[in-house]
């Protein structure tokens, strides 16, 4: 089968990791299957390295006439020539896999959701199957957001909510649909992807490393109090790691904005911390898995950490963070940046000192096995629906 993947990119390494997960699954399941992404998603080189094919189809929202002309011309390219160039024509696509992560919510606004509604409606009219892979949904109080998302649901065949709250948001609005898709619950599916440890990151057995993953959205999508306290929170954590003889370093999980936060954190601490900007999400996952502990605000950095049973202190800006830490049976490890310095220190001590650290790691091991089992079950349901 031929799949089109939507809702991911190469800017956020979580999105890229989801792409790896999709490509890996279908490559292992059916060697002849292909996953394609549109030409505006990264470069040819980035798509090739991820195992993606190139979808020879143009969006038409900004320049309808030019877009339709390009699409018409693309259909004239002989199939054999297309495949030799790893190009996929839109009429060859059998199913659309939406791996947006967290797009369909009031917090993201209506504009992108309306665009996605038009795209998925078009795909459905072309006779393709549409699956929303596990992701966070809601809330849907904004009427434009709700209207656009209901159109997406009407044109979907199978929908997976990534957490209990997202599932409840879907249940609350599904009665507004004349035709309701199959709605199920499944965890984030990147937990099955194995990371790789880069040669430059081989921690010495005697040196404990503490990874800090900043997230610019913590000063963009939060209350004024959280915005003001977030950088202080990271500074408190980094300084406490140093006190505990743990070497802090900063890992960039989003290539556009998080680096600026990393530089500000360096300035606040008053010393040069190592900043790692790694292009490969597989190496990023390997680094997280080989850290002594992680302090993170990027959702997929937290998934990668918890699924590898590494103690983790998290903070976040939406319900998806709370649900994630509940799924991994460590809700006490998610705290707000506005908490007192004393509470931050006490929470970090649970990740550092024995026997709390070992007890936490045991809980993470049990929870991780369960989350991976649920992800495997999700893929089985997808495969059965697609009859791959």
From TrEMBL:
Cleavable signal peptide: none
Q: Where is the Polysaccharide pyruvyl transferase domain?
A: 12-319
One annotated GO molecular function is: transferase activity
Alphabetized UniProt keyword annotations: Transferase
Q: Does the keyword Ligase apply?
A: no
Q: Which PANTHER family does its entry note?
A: COLANIC ACID BIOSYNTHESIS PROTEIN WCAK
Q: What is this protein called?
A: Polysaccharide pyruvyl transferase family protein
Please report the organism this UniProt entry assigns to the protein. Answer: Roseofilum halophilum BLCC-M91
């Amino acid at each position: 089968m031929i799949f089109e993947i939507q809702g991911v990119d190469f800017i956020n390494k979580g999105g890229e990791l989801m792409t790896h997960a999709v490509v890996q699954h279908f490559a292992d399941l059916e060697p002849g299957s292909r996953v394609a992404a549109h030409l505006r998603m990264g470069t040819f080189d980035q798509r090739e390295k991820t195992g993606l094919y190139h979808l020879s189809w143009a969006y038409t929202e900004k320049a309808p006439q030019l877009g339709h002309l390009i699409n018409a011309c693309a259909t004239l390219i002989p199939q054999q020539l297309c495949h030799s160039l790893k190009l996929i024509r839109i009429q060859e696509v059998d199913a659309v896999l939406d791996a947006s992560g967290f797009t369909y919510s009031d917090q993201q606004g209506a504009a992108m959701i309306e665009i996605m509604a038009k795209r998925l409606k078009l795909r459905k009219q072309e006779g393709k199957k549409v699956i929303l892979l596990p992701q966070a949904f809601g809330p849907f109080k904004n009427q434009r957001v709700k209207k656009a998302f209901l159109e997406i649901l009407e044109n979907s065949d199978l929908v997976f909510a990534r957490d209990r709250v997202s599932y409840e948001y879907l249940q609350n609005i599904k009665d507004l649909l004349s035709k309701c898709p199959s709605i199920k619950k499944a965890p984030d599916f990147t937990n099955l992807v194995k990371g790789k440890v880069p040669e430059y990151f081989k921690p010495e057995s005697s040196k404990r490393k503490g990874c800090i993953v900043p997230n610019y959205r913590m000063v963009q999508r939060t209350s004024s109090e959280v915005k003001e306290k977030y950088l202080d929170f990271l500074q408190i954590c980094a300084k406490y790691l140093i006190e505990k003889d743990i070497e802090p370093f900063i890992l960039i999980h989003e290539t556009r904005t998080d680096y600026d936060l990393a530089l500000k954190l360096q300035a606040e601490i008053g010393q040069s911390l190592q900043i790692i900007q790694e292009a490969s999400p597989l190496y990023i996952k390997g680094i997280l898995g080989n850290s002594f502990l992680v302090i993170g605000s990027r959702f997929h950095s937290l998934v990668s950490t918890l699924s590898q049973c590494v103690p983790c202190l998290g903070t976040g800006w939406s319900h998806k963070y709370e649900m994630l830490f509940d799924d991994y049976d460590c809700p006490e490890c998610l705290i707000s940046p506005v908490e007192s310095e004393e509470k931050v220190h006490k929470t970090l001590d649970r990740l550092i000192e024995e026997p709390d650290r070992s007890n936490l790691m045991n809980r993470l091991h049990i929870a991780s096995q369960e989350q991976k089992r649920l992800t495997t079950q999700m893929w089985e349901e997808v495969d059965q629906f697609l009859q791959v």
